[in-house]
Design brief:
alpha+beta, Alpha-Beta Plaits, 4 helices, 19% strand, globular, binds iron/sulfur cluster
């Protein structure tokens, strides 16, 4: 039940893993429990550039995933709260 924009497509949060430092602000602020912070998947880690890999390791390979993205109501709180500007809301569907 994602919030639709005027064209009817739902907005969902997308995390830039090159920027995310796993600081959990998004987990704390989202009213709908969209996010979880956990160890980055090996496939996602492999896609990072060298500097982003080093940064990821420095932060314990923690990153944010969106297991409940369908619950997003596009309030924007996570976008504002993320200290790394790693979250964008994008149209899906
Ligand atoms: S997306 Fe932003 S707020 Fe969420 S864990 Fe990553 S850096 Fe923190
Ligand atoms: S936009 Fe709002 S509802 Fe959607 S993931 Fe971010 S904080 Fe949660």
């Amino acid at each position: 039940m994602s919030a639709p924009d005027c064209s009817g497509k739902p907005l969902r949060p997308v995390v830039n893993r090159s920027k995310c430092e796993g600081k959990r602000d998004c987990v704390e602020v989202c009213p709908y429990d969209v996010f979880e912070v956990r160890r980055i998947d090996d496939a996602d880690f492999a896609k990072l550039g060298l500097l982003a890999k080093l940064k990821s390791v420095a932060h314990g390979r923690k990153t944010a995933y969106t297991p409940k993205a369908d619950a997003c109501l596009a309030c924007g709180l996570c976008v504002t709260a993320c200290p790394e500007k790693a979250i964008t809301l994008v149209f899906s569907g």
